[in-house]
Known about the structure:
Layout: E1 4-8, E2 13-16, E3 19-22, E4 28-32, E5 39-41, H1 54-67, H2 72-89, H3 93-107, H4 111-119, H5 122-133
Helix pairs in contact: 1-2, 1-4, 2-3, 3-4
Amino acid sequence: MSGLVLKLGPKERVLINGAVIENGDRRSRLSIMTPNANILRLRDAIHPEEANTPVRRVCYAAQLVLTGDSIPDDARMPLLRRIEELSQVLTDHDSRRQLALATEAVLDAQYYQCLKALRALLPREERLLAARVQ
């Protein structure tokens, strides 16, 4: 993941390789140069009780690798299966593209990129679930 740039707001927190880092009083920009660093903005974190939809559950599984709560090698196959299950339901072109990016990221052990691709599906899932309720 070399070359990742994090832009942090005042007092914003980020988890990098298991360490919580809090920004100071001003906006800042960090360049992450270490490849394969596990990074998660805490404002983007999904809490266990919020993992209550199919896409959110897969995002949460990817997030657990980033936080160090899941071993990447153990998480790989279950994540790939869950992404495949999502592809059975989310069949539009844009969703398929995001799912392909997520799959490729898992295969490359790039769990931040996987989470990023999956998070792009959250608004679509929300619209689909809202339409189903009506």
